[in-house]
Amino acid sequence: MNIKILVAHHKPGLIISNDVYLPIHVGKSVSKVELGIQGDNAGDNISTLNPIYCEMTAAYWGWKNLEADYVGLCHYRRYFTFESMPIKSYIKEKYIFYKKKICKLFHPGLHYSFQEQTIVWNEDLLRKMVIDFSDLLKIKLENHDYDMVVPRPYIENSQDIEQHFRDLGKDNMRALKDVVSEYYPDFYPYLISALVSHKLYSANMFIMKKELYDDYCRLVFGILDLQMKRIVSASWCLDPLKEGCYSRLSGYLAEILTSAYVMKNVAEGGNILYVNSIFLAT
């Protein structure tokens, strides 16, 4: 079982590497630092687009340059785990979530999201949890033939996902919808379902069978490319990279598309393993 989970790094820090986790320097073509790890600028790549695509330049590199049974993506501060949030913390978070959900009735605009996750402060503990996850993941994938592995979603208490991403701008969201409606009509219902949902499979974290990963990448990068071309042709920003007018935009839109793709596979009866996530507070 060959599993590769790309860990997106862009600055010096804790680097964990084993036969499952593959650290990758995203945006290496435009980076001013040397991390001493695999760069996303080798082979077929979009490394120069990292200011717009964020960690998705690693996803593209994996699509074009990796051969594995499963391919995944996470971040230098976010890893997968089978561990659960401590029960006291879980109860506290749930209490706050429902309290603010009720308060929303009296105080419009009060938002709160909840996701079961373990917050890790100790780097040694993080290393152990990551190694433990790698070993157990191999067993689970070999025995159960999962199509994908994803962290449990964030749940918004009062706003849908389109409202959650409102800072991206109405024109950018409209362009996303129009592109999917025109060029990927079969996927359009899942995009709309994701936008009106209160759940978000966030941060572009996932592990997928390679054939599913290839399908996901063809879809997502096709949409993002068309979306960017559309908004550039309709706006005052002629060179997004040089002018920096759409910084991180495609990375955020990819979160919506990733969430929609997970929902699509849920609707189609995919065999999905839900896990938790670790956030390394620094």
List the helices and strands and how they pair.
Elements (H helix, E strand, L loop, with lengths): L2 E7 L11 E5 L12 E2 L10 H4 L2 H10 L4 E6 L2 E4 L5 H17 L9 E2 L2 E4 L2 H22 L3 E4 L2 E3 L4 H4 L5 H14 L4 H9 L2 E2 L5 E4 H24 L6 H4 L5 H19 L4 E9 L2
Number of strands: 12
Structural class of the secondary structure composition? alpha/beta
Largest sheet geometry? 9 strands, mixed
Order of helix and strand elements from N to C terminus: EEEHHEEHEEHEEHHHEEHHHE
Radius of gyration: 19 Å
Q: What is the average per-residue confidence, as pLDDT, rounded to a whole number?
A: 90
- Distance between the ends: 33 Å
The residue fraction in helices comes out at 40-55%
The backbone outline, from C-alpha atoms, is globular
Query: How many structural domains can be distinguished in the coordinates?
Result: 1
Unreliable stretches covering 5 or more consecutive residues: none
Give the helix tally: 10
As a percent range, the share of strand residues is 15-25%
